Amino acid sequence: MRRLPSWQVSLIPFVVLTLSLVVIIKIFGPDALSGGSQVCLLLASAVTAAISMFAYKNSWEILEFCILDNIRSVGTAILILLLIGAIAGTWMVSGIVPAMICYGMQVIYPAIFLAAACAICALVSLMTGSSWTTIATIGVALIGIGVALGFEPGWTAGAIVSGAYFGDKVSPLSDTTVLASSSSGTPLFTHIRYMMITTIPSLTIAMVIFLVASLMHKQVGASQTAEFAGALKSVFNITPWLLIVPALTGVLIVKKVPAVLTLFCAAVMAAVTGLVAQPQAVWAVANPGLPFTDFSGLSFWDACKGITVTFYGSTAIQTGNEAIDALISTRGMTGMLNTIFLIVCSVTFGGVLAGSGMLKSLTELFARLAHRAFTLVGATVGTGLVCNIVTGDQYISILLTSSLYKKLYERKGYENRLLSRSVEDSATVTSVLIPWNSCGMTQATVLKVPTLEYLPYSFFNILSPFMSVLVAAVGYRIFRSKKAKAEEVD
């Protein structure tokens, strides 16, 4: 039996990671995810390996085996992330997402503006799988509409953030959702269905608050939604037939078709739809730099090039409208490479922690403190929040929290989906509420509303961690694993 590092020694890599991230985020700001954060993870991994090999005489072969085993475990997640990038491009260029926005905007009235803004962002984020894209596009438009109607920017931004992060959490296209499910060993759609137990009540409460606030608001100004919808219709052929693709995707999800096959089919269906319904958009993607108005027909070669680019590359189109250009612009599979880079570095860090015995040492510390589902979930939620505060990044927080508690949940006999939900209810949704976190900095910059100004009104994000702990305290649908049930019978 090898000697385990003490929990105090096991915290050294986290201290190194935290301090290096503080420096990197100070230097690079929101661009830290482009490589700086990954370097910090590799540095922390190197420190962990050095302590393990020189102070505790562990061999490099053990550490390397654990690293490779961790990387192997996220192989499917990496493939899913690439397919998510493909869907981001194909669903945009085919007009599916613009159609969802146009039809969603028809429900915006001043008396229900905040609730409608939350609902529209939730829907767009659900369909795109990205809270960042939703906030940077339709969110920016809604901020302008809110100002015209006389709503405080903090209220509008809070509604936008609440809706965007709800959609992000329950979307099978979301990288954070995939990350939380894969890092905890939970099937993607099992994870999403289980999250509904906490996310639906949290969103319902938030929507009620937004609706009451809208009804109490004195209506001033005129809505800009017709203008924005008109700009979309000038670029895309908006028709209800476009909604067939998301409907069929929903059928595949309900039928529990594997996530990889579902996402692949969704991307292919959208690509075909784009050729039929939006030839002008496909042509524009195939001819970057040319004005959108130059379109005179789609040749075979332009069709092949345009569809291929929507899968892997930039879908930027010059329409002459900055808001529409920002909405349409996606990066396809290429846009997922930084996230994949981060995942590989994070699981490397997790692998070294496991191989060195430091992860086990910390897990045993938590095991002594957590005795019931309530305390275990509470500790998980608290750790996710603390990781967001000290690391400044939601991806790292998701991976670290999952790594710290995965073995403990198994030892305590709880299903992995309880862990994945607890991680999402904390690490994912609270990241945007922290001013120095990459999410908080980005959204404050995009919306031009300081983080601390929209924080009090981001009701879904605030309620989610409390709802997770409350459901665990009540014991509603907290299941024991099959292994634990078998042991109890024996």
Automatic annotation (TrEMBL):
Return the PANTHER family for the record: MALATE-2H(+)/NA(+)-LACTATE ANTIPORTER, MALATE-2H(+)_NA(+)-LACTATE ANTIPORTER
- Source organism (scientific name): Phocaeicola intestinalis
The family annotation for this protein states:
Belongs to the NhaC Na(+)/H(+) (TC 2.A.35) antiporter family.
Which controlled-vocabulary keywords does the entry list? Antiport, Cell membrane, Membrane, Transmembrane, Transmembrane helix, Transport
**Residue ranges of domain Na+/H+ antiporter NhaC-like C-terminal in the record:** 163-475
Compartment(s) = Cell membrane
Residues crossing the lipid bilayer are 7-29, 35-56, 77-101, 107-126, 133-151, 192-213, 234-253, 259-277, 340-359, 454-476
Protein name stated in the entry: Sodium:proton antiporter
User: What is its membrane topology?
Assistant: Multi-pass membrane protein
Against Pfam families, the record matches this protein to:
Na_H_antiporter
**Is Coiled coil there in the keyword field?**
no
